[in-house]
Amino acid sequence: MLDADARAVLDAQAAMGRPPLDSLPVEIAKSGFLETCPLLQGPREAVSAVQDITIAGSGGPLPLRVYRGQGCAVEQAPALVFFHGGGWVLGNLESHDTICRWIANDLAGVVLAVDYRLAPEHPFPAAIEDAAAAVRHAHQNARHLGIDPARLAVGGDSAGGNIAAVMALMARDGALPPIAFQMLLYPVTDVSGDQDSYRHCAEGFGLTTAAMRWFHGHYLGKTGRPEDWRISPLRAADVSGLAPAFVLTAGYDPLHDEALAYAHRLGDADVPLLLDENPGQIHGFISMDLFIAAARPAVTRATDFWREVEAASAV
């Protein structure tokens, strides 16, 4: 059954009468998303410190936002490199500021949010290149950032979860420094879009199948291929040896089945895993905390599992 809070959000969105996302010019969609985010999010939690920095990316200067949570140690703190959702087309540091603050506070650690290049102006592999640059920067500058390079994690929601999953695969294969944990919140894992949930949740639950295909097209551009594991990590030949993972799903979400399939592959490969199923929820519910009470606790479950993983590895 659909969660009552989620239903209230959907009813309010329907009452606004906005045109479908996939019918809008890209620039209108981008600005509309940024205008809507604050309307769904509550007051921002205070953290110990926030700093905007810029690092060198393969496509030029790459903005990052560094959060230090309440109680964060001066050095050797855990750290998570976070990639925001928005279908690789929408979003920025502001749209996901709330989530990053929650993670930083729950960890008593550091979150580095990445303002990676967006499609369609910068299609695949621009986002992957920027994400990799951010992970390398965090590892190489661990001492300056006050973080423990052995406790470096990646995470993100939706398209950001897709990017995080790709980073974990790259790290496993030696293309990036080691990753200790991956936090995948309703991630995109297969852009073929042929899972049953693309049909069962095609319309009426916020994110639509048509919108996802719109996102896929912009991200793939002229050269991206759905079978490429850097686009569809579910298609990776081997997922063994990956960092422990928290995978969150929402029941009324076109992405439900691909996120679930990726979690099952990780579990079958003996990757330490917590599959966090939210059968009554819609895609993006963690970014709707002003109305959906389940939003904040979901992040705490993710960080709690990371702590459990660390405790188990220390035994």
Automatic annotation (TrEMBL):
InterPro entries: AB_hydrolase_3, AB_hydrolase_fold, GDXG_lipolytic_enzyme, Lipase_GDXG_HIS_AS. Pfam families: Abhydrolase_3. The keyword Transcription does not apply. One of its GO terms (molecular function) is hydrolase activity. Residues 80-286 form the Alpha/beta hydrolase fold-3 domain. The keyword Hydrolase applies. Keywords: Hydrolase. Belongs to the 'GDXG' lipolytic enzyme family. This is Alpha/beta hydrolase. It comes from Acidisoma silvae.
